[in-house]
Records
---
Amino acid sequence: MAVTATRAPRHTRPTGPNYKWVALTNTTLGVLMGAMNSSILLISLPAIFKGLNVNPLEPAETTYLLWILMGYMVITATFLVTIGRLSDIWGRVRIYNAGFAIFTVASLLLFVMPGDGSGNTGALEIIILRLIQGIGGGCLIANSTAIITDAFPSKQRGLALGLNMVAALSGSLIGLLVGGVLATLGWRLVFLVSVPFGIIGTVWAYMSLREQAAKRMAKGIDLLGNLCLGGGLVIFLVAMTYGIMPYGTESTGWTNPWVIAGLVIGLGMLVLFVFVENRVKEPLFNLHLFQIRSFAAGCAAQFLSALAYGGLQFMLIIWLQGVWLPIHGYNYEDTPLWSAIYMIPLLIGFMIFGVLGGYLSDKLGVRALTTGGMIGLALGFILLTLFPADFSYAPFALVLFIIGASFGSFSAPNTAAIMNSLPSEYRGVGSGMRATFQNAGNPLSMGVFFTIIVVGLSATLPGAIQNGLTQGGVPAATASAASHLPPTGALFAAFLGYNPMESLVPGSVLHTLAPATQTHLLGTQFFPNLISNPFMDALRLVFYFSAALCLIAAICSYFRGNRYVYDELPQNQPAQSVPPTQGTAQTTR
């Protein structure tokens, strides 16, 4: 294996004893901004589409909805390892600062460019700018964990990473609340809110952050590896995105030849990536790092937990907005904001145990916390299967708290164990790979969850709609036509806070019905009661699937073995001369 030289970092001024807290607060601001940005969009999509004059329930517009929703995640997951590799070569702080700037400029353009009523053109502009924003977000995500790891001693990293991750989930739920308020004032404001954070963070990062790790003096960039990994992830995730869209008369696109080809080609390129990385002199990612059991098991657990948990918020929003809140008398226009409010117990559980888990991992080790966290998360998913569509909120809030606490107990300790196991010269690319497992798992989770729900609804929803409308007084021919509503349309209606009965039953038919019947059909309870049983049957399958993934992740966490801390190794020692299992071994408890 070729030896790669390193050079010590250059500092324009000393970091000082409090530098680690400066690094933590700045990177936490970046994570908070990125998380808020994603969830603000989730909750504001109805206002955005109305502002653009695009109907997201039209089959032809579904592509725009999905790409605005998932494009940011796809592009971020694709570039994380490449960004991490470049950060090890050029400097983590330099790439991190560039990410803040890119993200801020894209946010400003999102506020300025799309015109009111610009239709599909405006939607396309938002998609493109969101992809650019995703590159900036990738620079922040790939380097924030590495910067914290460089700044903090190993015995304090769990607490620091716990605080950073609490900001991530807090930002996600805070974004739902902020987005719900801003969307009522003006849809452009949901993009503007990131700009002040971005400007402050960019200037602050440039002025205060310093390179602490030795840079790798690489002789070149692994172009073939970048092509295989980036191209493979893009093709595979794009195919997943189109797989959850209707195709012809099918409710999903998994029979679409292009989707099948995309999945096969994407997986093939990812397999080819492994062969390429074992043969090039300057690999994009040093696969020998997987010989470190703590790193390999931690990444496996990270991916499984993301696959189990990544689509949960999406499913809970559909459940609350489309079923529970309307049944309890909330207007469809108000359900996005209230769904965020009712998910606050999830945030509280994660905040408390995210910080506590990180702190305890520094004192007690990671094995018990990560294994117990995944078992607790599996239990939370099982408990969710016991709820009916119209549930009592108090026990539901308790289960949300358990889920948040369990995931918080896992997240920071697992990340700390992964980062502690890496040589300092590889923390950038290692952090990028860890984040890739996390961020690739999230859209995959949404794709799998969505597919399970749609397939389940396809079997029972048409009959439920036809019977419900017929019993409600709608003529049989109209009820039969309405029953062909694609399950995807029903889910998007629930997610976006629309009442699909307004478009399913023609106005000419509604006017022939008694006023009481019209009120009943267009009210807040008819459609939720119509969809509740088919939806809950499919949703329980999702929760069982997630519980099984969590148990496998718990097994990975338990058998992670020893962890290795490289802090004591000289920074000027050649990176490749450090065997993957060398370092200061510490028993993981």
---
Amino acid sequence: MKHCFSRTMAMTLTLSLAVISFCGSSFAASSNDTNVSGAGFEAIESSEKVKQELMAQYGENKPIMDGDYDKSLAVKCVNGTFVGRKTDDNIIAYKGIPFVGQQPVGEYRWKAPVEYGADDGIYEAYYNGKTPCQKEEVGEKASLYVQGEDCLHLNIWKADDTGAEKKPVMVWIHGGAFEMGGTVDPLYEAHNLVRENPYVIVVSIEYRVGVFGFFHLSHLPDGDDYPDAQNLGLMDQMMALKWIHENIEGFGGDPENVTIFGESAGGASVTLLPLVEGSHEYFQRVIAQSGSPVFTRSTEEAIACTDEVMDKLGCKTVADLQKVDVEDLVNASGVLGLRVWAERDGSFLPADPYEAYADGAAKDLDILQGCNKDEMGYFICGFGLEPYNAFAADRLEKKLAQLTEEEKALVESYMKDAGDVTETYTSTSRLFDQITFIAPLFRLSENQTMAGGKSYTYFFTPESDIPLMRSGHSIELPVVFDREKDTTGRDFDETFSKILRKMWVQFAKTGDPSLTADTSPDGKEKVWPLYDLKDRQVMIFDEFDIHPEKESERAILDWDRTYFLTKYYCI
């Protein structure tokens, strides 16, 4: 059987990504358990090639002191004038722009981002900033780039035109379980998206991940000086959004028409940011792909995670931790099995995000959100079938232990009746689809709608050509960015892909993703109805038939037997 390559292969080839955590539990597949075939070695060689390609792009943006630069590519911002580069097809990219006044190194480690200040200097914006500190992995391309704690930068893509009208702005927040990833990943290169849709500006932002971005410290003897350490990654995102709000007009963007969009942990981020005090000043719309507030942990769970890392390092205080080098911190955090989530701390984030939505915390925002038909296919593909089945059994045992006897009976009944099950896609996989993606999606749509807000909901169904992947987690990303085929193994229908991108852009532009016959790439009107509490209409992204459907017609969610599981979040 063929193996999954690129970003999924890492899960079967290395211990760290074999310790794939799903909903906060982990299963470790040792090298003895992993069947690394010749295809696996081919993937390793391929990763070395990717690393070389990425490293060849590395450079450090420098001050321009001699006045020798293209003035037409220079944009004056609060913290400097930044000079971009233009491609032959008239797309200008500005890369590696800092959005903080001090990078989070040395005494600024585990501290809230420092706001940028006024600067009259002129700087190159030619090179992507560093990737946040993380384990270097075969399948996580951004991790193969230069890493550093001094990673808080953003990138901007715009078409070179002279139109006077301000353009809608789309701000991308990458995923990676809050522990991996980075904007340098070639999949997130927005050149193609902007070339096809020149009337929007796309920005990608970096944030601290892992123990540098989500690490509860205030319970330690000297932890009072680190009250924000548990949610620094989200605070970084907020600072980037503030920078965009104050500076994007110089690039031709409309600071009053900003959409934040993200996938997986990025999808969770864009559903959590609306709950942060003062955030609505910086964006008006949200697109959440396969991510929700379910990817959070309680304060008690966060403290337990910190204590595990402390024990691993033999540290007692933050002062002890500050003496530990970056590599050792990253390696020690592997004990968490990817249980690094944002924290429902009751201050920066509400203790119950779903209740906050139901109370109207985001009712003034437009939300577009959805998930894929077989999300767990990504993890089956990544692990390989046998390791995945072992992981699934371990995960199921831990999940059932959280439930009452009555709830266990409901879950077991669901699994017994789960449909569309093959020998490579089990009822357990269907359960995890429900717990982690589908039920949280509908709970958020329900709560946003109950509060009087707008929610457009989708369900993505096209399948990969890669064995075991099906319509797995992240499979829509190459469509959204018109980029690589890492998780698809094939090109999806061109018209289908253009329609999806056009709907994302139309939503960013107007708050309604519907397309008229004139704007739709296939010349046919596409009306996307708002989610409502009676019909619960969802836009179905079938590859050759994009259409709205009542949820009940496709029975996407088991309302009686899995919906309640969202109260357990993901740990």
